[in-house]
Amino acid sequence: MTYLSFHADKPLDFVAIGRLCVDLNANEINRPMEETVTFTKYVGGSPANITIGMSRLGKRCAFVGKVSDDQMGRFIVQYLERNGISTSNVVTDRTGAVTGLAFTEIKSPTDCSILMYRDHAADLNLQPGEVREELIAQAKMLLISGTALAKSPSREAVFQALHYAKKYGVVIAFDIDYRPYTWTSAEETAVYYNLAAEKCDVIIGTREEFDIMERFEDNQAHLDRITADKWFDHSAQIVIIKHGKEGSIAYARDGSEHRARSFPANVVKTFGAGDAYAAGFLYGMLQGWTIGKSMEHGSAAACIVISSHSCSDAMPTAEQVQRFIEQSKREEVK
Amino acid sequence: MTYLSFHADKPLDFVAIGRLCVDLNANEINRPMEETVTFTKYVGGSPANITIGMSRLGKRCAFVGKVSDDQMGRFIVQYLERNGISTSNVVTDRTGAVTGLAFTEIKSPTDCSILMYRDHAADLNLQPGEVREELIAQAKMLLISGTALAKSPSREAVFQALHYAKKYGVVIAFDIDYRPYTWTSAEETAVYYNLAAEKCDVIIGTREEFDIMERFEDNQAHLDRITADKWFDHSAQIVIIKHGKEGSIAYARDGSEHRARSFPANVVKTFGAGDAYAAGFLYGMLQGWTIGKSMEHGSAAACIVISSHSCSDAMPTAEQVQRFIEQSKREEVK
Amino acid sequence: MTYLSFHADKPLDFVAIGRLCVDLNANEINRPMEETVTFTKYVGGSPANITIGMSRLGKRCAFVGKVSDDQMGRFIVQYLERNGISTSNVVTDRTGAVTGLAFTEIKSPTDCSILMYRDHAADLNLQPGEVREELIAQAKMLLISGTALAKSPSREAVFQALHYAKKYGVVIAFDIDYRPYTWTSAEETAVYYNLAAEKCDVIIGTREEFDIMERFEDNQAHLDRITADKWFDHSAQIVIIKHGKEGSIAYARDGSEHRARSFPANVVKTFGAGDAYAAGFLYGMLQGWTIGKSMEHGSAAACIVISSHSCSDAMPTAEQVQRFIEQSKREEVK
Amino acid sequence: MTYLSFHADKPLDFVAIGRLCVDLNANEINRPMEETVTFTKYVGGSPANITIGMSRLGKRCAFVGKVSDDQMGRFIVQYLERNGISTSNVVTDRTGAVTGLAFTEIKSPTDCSILMYRDHAADLNLQPGEVREELIAQAKMLLISGTALAKSPSREAVFQALHYAKKYGVVIAFDIDYRPYTWTSAEETAVYYNLAAEKCDVIIGTREEFDIMERFEDNQAHLDRITADKWFDHSAQIVIIKHGKEGSIAYARDGSEHRARSFPANVVKTFGAGDAYAAGFLYGMLQGWTIGKSMEHGSAAACIVISSHSCSDAMPTAEQVQRFIEQSKREEVK
Questions:
Q1: D146: helix, coil or strand?
Q2: CA gap A227, D264 in Å, rounded
Q3: Fold observed for domain B12-19+46-95+127-328
Q4: How distant is the Cα of A322 from the closest Cα of chain B, in angstroms?
Q5: What is the predicted ipTM?
């Protein structure tokens, strides 16, 4: 069954709006950052990673965002372009804002943390009037990411993009991507996450992220089914709730449930798993695959990324994912 | 035909959320404020005025808002209570915020202006968690006012109130009440006005106010019909567009149009006309009157208020309005 | 003995820098402000009051300050000009700032309070580059007031004025005028009050105000003599410590002490006493009077002001003060 | 002749107050930062560098500052302690502030730039009440650095430290270290730089930095002698004006002038030259050397640092400096 219907004749497959930042990944791993001496620079930010992933998988992509007017901002734009992503709607900030930074610390494969620099971040300065209506109109799918809702005017820019997407029948996917910094309060978070989610066709998040959205709801038992059904009263077609290593569950508007397990991995760090999963899954949707096959594709992409040092740079091609799935199955047979 | 259906068994007729402030009206009129020497103090703010009007008309009312922890804040609470309005959900700010002020200047009956003090205003500090779900649940009608959307956290408190109103089947009226101060940009205004209006049953504003909401739309000719139809795609049952002295037009979801003229008035100042109109019209809706009769009631209330020195304090009773309408008709016959 | 030497040939006697605001005095006195209905508008702010007082006493005065670009700001400028004070260096703010307000509440002659509006106040926006060097150069005496030190850029404007005054041999008087609002912390207050006081010839404050300046000092016993001697190590010639009804003590650099008592008064409210005292005392200094005679003049002016409804508007002429002193002495004899 | 007299019996030679940050130096040099892939982490900030330099030269040092409550902050504290610098007055911020960052870009030995992250920097949060009086009291010399004056409350903390230094006869050195970011305006900069410099015994800056301080002065020809003489009217004993490759000139209160040339260097980058110079010169003063010998020592230290990849980590020992000077002289002879 097809849950999402895409306009076949649109020139762009995928456009994302939101955070563009720089990851500075510690080269010396398995130690606290106090003892880290050198860092390697990558493009980062959840929607950036997903878009890079989608482009690697072969889709025609564009990004709507804002970068600082400095070397970091130019590095981001150049990297996106080298990866075949249109940056015609990546605006340069003129207010002296900086690029958000994420220093990663990998104490062990399961003990990872991030030190964020998000004060005066350029991406949060995106204005609603800077979102180009004709670009959104040309896309089959729009991805919004929760961090872009954390602050004005980026928050309004996202709602503006949602407005255009609705107007032109663009399928909307929402990656909750909740990060506590930047938000003023848990209540503020719940209000805007709900206003945005009401308008989306696909909603993807962890159980903990959905709990944050349900701050004012009655779902004390944190039941996934209750979570999903709420959104089917609005625009949602598919709601995916991720449970880490336990795998994920997709609920569809027709009442069906679809479960996917994680692949066994040689984990370097946990960062980037969610982004790779989202890219892989949404790619499957665009290909017209079943929910189950798309979820498997997402899980495999996630597994590949967490076995590598970077997030964005490690996003796999469709062939890599396919090969990984086949290899995993062969090994399982053994 | 009945456009709005109210829950008959609710203990409250009307609850409003938003601005509570103090008007300081120049006693010496028909001169610039530089030459004004004394001022008289009144409770003000559009939703406050409407609620006072509704209470004078005999309805059971409550207010959801925030006041400063000083003499001005206590004056407001005492005045609301003296007018029979429940203040159980009027919270006292503890951050040192002040009561918003509006100094009025009446150079002539048609040349009036307001000098606003809105920095660090207590009413804009209302938190979403301070809106009491059980209070909203008990009301037949909720009124929201645009100025409360101008800033966080008051903005989120309004969306929270809308969420509760939807949950309990409370009819929602939206008085656009656009004031340029406080808002950061025209784009921001349009985004939040639209997000709120999507959820409302009755939307009331001037032609200019609807234009502001249509910043990202195609309605270059400013046609009222196009304006109204947009909202019938969402929740609206009735859309009223006010044209000043030319009267107002109400559009209903069934396609009907209803026009009301202004009554001839002995104008002292123009302030408060819109608030009195909204109170009068929404009173008629709660009474089960036709749109036409309700509009006439609103226009008469407006006419009474602009013939007086104050806004809130001049709100008429139902008998006063009735008498005014009858008298106007008798004089017309002459 | 002469403690202060003024340049005889300067065209201006007195220039003050700092706060220009509006007082809204309750017309209904001896009751809480919640029950006050009407207010009368006056120019206010300690340095404004002192300058108006000095002009009434017959001195050639100018003001360095900033007013809002609205009716309140224009009212202030017009009032100063009507009182013969040069406003050539009163700048109009263009950032949308408002005039600071002080609503006075007079519950009883000894129980008075003020409700302040100081957010986004125009006077605190005065830039150092807006202080005109040639104006300061032309004055015999410069008065600075502590409230102008509370925030940037007004704080820097005061230091700039001090720099010019030093450069041109202008006698500097410092009215501490401590008001807790606006200041970020008690420590910040102490730091800037001390930096400013180091450069002043005359320092006037209450015992409590000097205590605030001595936050980082060793004067646990709050001894006036220790307080005064500290400043004689810097620029001070005269230090006056006020003890309310107990009168005031002036310490001079030569080691002398001068005490002044208060006159018995028919007190309406306590506001304005300090401003009238400062105007009266500094007038005496400019006249070449002894410290004792100048203090008596200040005390008499203070007594006249607290017997009236306003502060600025009640500032007496030299004749009124003289008459008041003579009358008091006659009555004492009886 | 001895220009500065130090208290011989104090347990600390040198204490500095101000900026503590992290330098991220591009490992790939001679290219724009857009093409830089990896960075190496060092402790940075002018007063931190000078203190590290002073400690390497063998002096007993302490630091007064504030660091972020994260891995970066802990890295700084650990590095200072490893270098023998007392961190008993290095306070940990609890407001969520971050460590300031300086990404260096070395396009060529003469085309270097810095990309700063100074928003919400922990070092600028140092409170005046956090400066420990007994620590300042124990030092022979206090160094203040201009960047710490850029913002409250760090600005007040510096004035508080100056107050304590004056109280206990601590010699005060001022490294102007002007950085345009963080400052609100050029006028604000001039005001506070002057207020601080008035209290200092040694003032060190480039010609451009002194120009900034003279914004409100008459020195259109930018004459060093006029610059220096201004400060001899206050507390200064020595004023050093640096002219880059042209060398530097020291003016002393007795009217003498002392010139030092730069050593020829194999320049990697220009960063850190000023800090090494200041450390070297002030070390000479503490040793009781002549101005000329101290300047030579400073110039040699500067030359060593600019031939290395880092600033702080490259600070030389006294033996290294001595060897460098001797070697330079031998080569010159050839």
A1: helix
A2: 71
A3: UDP-N-acetylmuramoyl-L-alanine:D-glutamate ligase (3.40.1190)
A4: 42
A5: 0.94
